């Protein structure tokens, strides 16, 4: 079945996008990503340790940009200015790479996005030639604004970052999916494979996750489960589920030919 | 001598240092990193010709694990 995800004109076979944070080491990171089948992986941009162990391993040696599409993020940024500066550094770091994940946070406890700053940063970045995938609240009005600004994908939260609480408001996600001409990805909140499947069954184009895999008891096994959850949910969406009825009186076995009548 | 800030830390440097010289001195030459000087990107191709000035604020960043 040819069912690929197209983001900013590039085609991907996998609809699961994964983060690279919170793993034990880079070997585990790489093994989990391989098991997930993800082709797009997020990375964060941080100050290098000056004068401390300059030979320490570099994440990019484990995730060669030739093999994976790296998606630099703005995690930890609380203003549009910081987010824009971070992604300009990322573009320089990754040799002109323009596909980025914008997130501007509003609160250090909940990591809820600051939508006014997110909209402001999106506008600057799009004008500057970036292909912006944007983490946002599940407000359909602001998701539409982000699409109109020119973001290449909108990525509403399913629940709070790192919470593992799953899909808390499928109805808002449904509104965003139904109205959007760009891909819609659930970013944040997925806790286990069924959450990923539910997101995909709603009609999401993809799911982005990190903690659900990295903080599972067995990250590699959970990465495989997530791959299957996303695939199962996607196929169920494409197949079209049966209608819901409170009862049907329509058994699956024949109602005639019963013995003893 | 000039005073600069590198990744938020104050440092005193010889005044003739270029960005490339600084990276060399810090053992960072040839690493996958990006440099911002006073809010502006210093492209890799301009590291050798960009000479640091008193009061410069530098950010030197790498990619790390994140979600």
From TrEMBL, chain A:
GO cellular component terms attached to this protein's record: cytoplasm
Subcellular location per the Swiss-Prot or TrEMBL entry? Cytoplasm
Q: Which Gene3D superfamilies match?
A: Aldolase class I
Q: Which GO terms describe its molecular function?
A: thiazole synthase activity
GO biological process, any:
thiamine diphosphate biosynthetic process
Question: Which InterPro entries does the entry mention?
Answer: Aldolase_TIM, Thiazole_synthase_ThiG, ThiG
Tell me the route in metabolism or biology where this protein functions.
Answer: Cofactor biosynthesis; thiamine diphosphate biosynthesis
Show the active-site residues. Answer: 101
Q: Which reaction does it catalyse?
A: [ThiS sulfur-carrier protein]-C-terminal-Gly-aminoethanethioate + 2-iminoacetate + 1-deoxy-D-xylulose 5-phosphate = [ThiS sulfur-carrier protein]-C-terminal Gly-Gly + 2-[(2R,5Z)-2-carboxy-4-methylthiazol-5(2H)-ylidene]ethyl phosphate + 2 H2O + H(+)
- Keywords assigned: Cytoplasm, Schiff base, Thiamine biosynthesis, Transferase
Name the residues that bind 1-deoxy-D-xylulose 5-phosphate: 162, 188-189, 210-211
Which region is the signal sequence? none
Domain (Thiazole synthase ThiG) spans 7-254
User: Which Pfam families has this protein been placed in?
Assistant: ThiG (PF05690)
Classify the source by domain of life: Bacteria
Q: What is its EC number?
A: 2.8.1.10
Q: What does this protein do?
A: Catalyzes the rearrangement of 1-deoxy-D-xylulose 5-phosphate (DXP) to produce the thiazole phosphate moiety of thiamine. Sulfur is provided by the thiocarboxylate moiety of the carrier protein ThiS. In vitro, sulfur can be provided by H(2)S.
Instruction: Report quaternary structure and partners.
Output: Homotetramer. Forms heterodimers with either ThiH or ThiS.
Q: Which family does the record claim for this protein?
A: Belongs to the ThiG family.
Q: What is this protein called?
A: Thiazole synthase
Tell me which species this is from. Denitromonas iodatirespirans
Gene that specifies this protein = thiG
Automatic annotation (TrEMBL), chain B:
What the entry lists under Pfam families is as follows: ThiS
Q: Which domain of life is it from?
A: Bacteria
SUPFAM superfamilies per the UniProt record, alphabetical: MoaD/ThiS
What sections of the sequence does the record tag as coiled-coil?
none
What InterPro entries does the record tag this protein with? Beta-grasp_dom_sf, Mopterin_synth/thiamin_S_b, Thi_S, ThiS/MoaD-like
Any idea what this protein is called? Sulfur carrier protein ThiS
């Amino acid at each position: 079945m040819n069912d690929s995800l197209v983001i900013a004109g590039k085609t991907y076979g996998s609809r699961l996008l994964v983060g690279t944070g919170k793993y034990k080491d880079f070997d585990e990171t790489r093994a989990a990503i391989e098991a997930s089948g993800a082709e797009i992986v997020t990375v964060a941009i941080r100050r290098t340790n000056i004068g401390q162990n300059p030979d320490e391993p570099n994440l990019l040696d484990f995730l060669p940009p030739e093999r994976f599409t790296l998606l630099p993020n703005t995690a930890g940024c609380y203003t549009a200015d910081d987010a824009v500066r971070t992604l300009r550094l990322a573009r320089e770091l990754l040799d002109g790479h323009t596909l980025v994940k914008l997130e501007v946070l509003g609160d250090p406890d909940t990591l809820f996005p600051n939508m006014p700053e997110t909209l402001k940063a999106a506008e600057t970045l799009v004008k500057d030639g970036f292909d912006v995938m944007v983490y946002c609240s599940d407000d359909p009005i602001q998701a539409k604004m982000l699409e109109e600004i020119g973001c290449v994908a909108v990525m509403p939260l399913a629940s709070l970052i790192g919470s593992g609480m799953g899909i808390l408001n499928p109805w808002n996600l449904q509104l965003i999916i139904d109205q959007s001409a760009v891909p819609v990805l659930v970013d944040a909140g997925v806790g286990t494979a069924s959450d990923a499947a539910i997101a995909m069954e709603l009609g999401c184009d993809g799911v982005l996750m990190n903690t659900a895999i990295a903080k599972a008891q067995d990250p590699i096994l959970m990465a495989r489960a997530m791959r299957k959850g996303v695939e199962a949910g996607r196929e169920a969406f494409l197949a079209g589920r049966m209608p819901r009825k409170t009862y049907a009186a329509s058994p699956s076995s024949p109602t005639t030919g019963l013995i003893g009548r | 001598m000039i005073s600069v800030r590198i990744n938020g830390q104050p440092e005193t440097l010889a005044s003739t240092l270029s960005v490339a010289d600084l990276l060399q001195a810090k053992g960072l030459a040839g690493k996958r990193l990006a440099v911002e000087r006073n809010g502006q990107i210093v492209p890799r191709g301009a590291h050798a010709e960009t000479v640091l000035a008193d009061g410069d604020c530098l950010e030197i960043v790498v990619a790390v694990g994140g979600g």
